[in-house]
Write a structure and sequence with these properties.
Blueprint lengths: L1 H6 L4 H13 L4 E2 L11 E3 L2 E3 L10 H14 L5 H7 L7 H9 L10 H23 L12 H4 L13 H12 L12 H7 L4 H9 L11 E15 L5 E8 L4 E6 L1 H6 L9 E9 L7 E9 L8 E5 L6 H12 L1 E4 L1 E5 L4 E4 L10 H11 L4 E3 L1
Parallel strand pairs: 1-3, 6-8, 9-11
Antiparallel strand pairs: 2-3, 4-5, 4-7, 5-6, 7-8, 9-13, 11-12
Length: 376
Amino acid sequence: MAALLTSVMGNTPKVGQYIQDCKRMGIEVLPPDINKSYSTFTVEEGKIRFGLAAVKNVGVNMIETMVQTRKEKGEFISFSDFCQKVDAKDLNKRAVESLIKCGAFDSLKIYRAQLMGVYESLLDSINQDKRRKIQGQLGLFDMTGDTSFSFKKDPLPNIKEFDDKIKLNMEKEILGLYISGHPLAEFQQELKYFTSMNSSTINEIMENPQETEHKDGEKIIVGGMVLEKVTKTTRNNKLMAFIVLEDLLGTMECIIFPNIFSQHMDLIQEGNLIIIEGTLSLKDEENPKILTNTIKPLTKMQTQKLYIKIKEKSDMVLLHKAKNICKKYHGNVPLYIYIEKDNKVLRADRDLWVKLNHDLIQELSQIFGKESVKIK
């Protein structure tokens, strides 16, 4: 799998898809690390270590120098030690900032927030010291008489670490994907239940349009986070939008026409989590798109569940009487039907999930009996 990831290093959506495949197979993908990573993706104790060549702004020369320095002088014990050991001509602030943001120094037990505050001044001080040594002058760190000791500990500000959202956004900026987590990770179950298609399937359609079973105009449901939004004024002077929706596997394009846009302007802001019901647009020589029909917020499913007990399958006719009640109290609580005779449980369609309240329970109890309507 490491070789497969390396083969698609320049294709961020593919890398993201394969990383998700690894997770599904129980293979952990480790973040970039200055003491463990190489240029390519590598296998490390049955896990896969992220390749440094996939880190934005980090050049091949710098990677080769880092790996060779690590081999000759041992692992880096601090950020200062890293800056002191690696040849100054291969170090640049932009590359070092990228390594900080993607978490490559995390194993040194240093907060990214601390390094972001001091890396430029530390890098400048150490590079100046290197120049002094070349010129035969007494360097700043030579004054201690023990150069190795001088770099064991970094002079870091006493500040808190960035919150998880900021760290994940940094990873996305530098790696093109999230590696230590994902803003949608806690909604994985909801996306599984609420949607009928994901970005991976849409990307497969794009790569193999002749082999797909999906059709132009097909009704689909997708969900995720609004990554980008561009608005456009139509000939009728009305606003519409083009958005990039990101799920756990990648991104997809959605078109929101004026009538839908005017109804849901508040929902389609960047960073919002939404569910879109629409139609799949498959046109020759165009990337697949989703034409939006309805937009809803993506919310957590309730931990509670509503159960209705019936004696046997023939009693399913009673559910037709309950449909309007469930739709009247529509919500995010799953509805389950327990068939007593068969000892079987069925989950109702998402459209029949409910919002729990006293009136709902009363109305359902009138049809099925008080003892047959339970919340668990």
